[in-house]
Design brief:
It contains nine helices and no strands. The chain is mostly helical. It has one domain (about 1-185): Four Helix Bundle (Hemerythrin (Met), subunit A) (Up-down Bundle), CATH 1.20.120.1630. InterPro entries: ERG24_DHCR-like.
């Protein structure tokens, strides 16, 4: 079990920084990437992500130096968070395809790619995928019981909030009044409303 916890903790410190960084590279510079085109964007981001992971790997020992041992008492809570994460993620996947997950609509040269998601779980909160990511990270931290993964779970709160703000700025530019109206109908970013207020159309962003 100690080996499994270590491997999962290592994967967390390797994967989370480039995964979150992907969106920080995308949204603030979306006009620049649209001019260069998708192949250039995906090439640069992929190479940058692997380079970041390689650098992190070199510092894996100090990053994973503090761990609190195998604690079965934390596992039920970890499974609870993980189950909630999977539930929210599956609800999101009913509305998202791979192109959307990779940010392809944002990168269309016209700046008008895709259509706005307003149905399903997106009629209850505006950023359910970020909620799913955070819930899953907490589960990961509780199971591995490594300080570094707890730090990642805490750091994700402001990090994902800022990603949401940057994404909403891009969506507002892309969809204009339609997105403003959607925000009016669904005022909460991360906490679901009790009843659906959005369109039931299966749209993609």
């Amino acid at each position: 079990m100690d080996t499994a916890r270590y491997v999962l903790a290592l994967l967390a410190v390797l994967m989370y920084p480039p995964a979150v960084g992907w969106w920080y590279v995308t949204h603030p510079f979306i006009g620049f990437w649209r001019r260069l085109g998708r192949p250039v964007f995906y090439g640069v981001v992929t190479v940058g992500s692997f380079a970041m992971m390689a650098i992190i790997y070199l510092f894996r020992e100090p990053l994973l130096a503090v761990e609190y041992g195998t604690d079965p008492y934390l596992w039920p809570l970890a499974f609870l968070f993980y189950g909630a994460s999977v539930y929210v993620e599956l609800r999101c996947r009913k509305r998202l395809d791979l192109k959307i997950l990779l940010g392809a609509p944002e990168l269309e040269r016209s700046g008008k790619g895709g259509r706005l998601i307003t149905g399903g779980i997106y009629a209850r909160m505006r950023h359910p995928r970020y909620v799913a990511v955070w819930l899953g990270t907490v589960a990961w931290a509780l199971f591995t019981n490594y300080l570094a993964v707890y730090v990642i779970a805490v750091a994700l709160v402001p990090a994902l909030y800022l990603v949401a703000v940057l994404e909403e700025r891009e969506l507002r530019q892309r969809f204009g009044a339609e997105y403003v109206e959607y925000c009016r109908r669904v005022p909460r970013r991360f906490v679901p409303t009790l009843r659906s207020t959005g369109s039931s159309r299966p749209l993609s962003r």
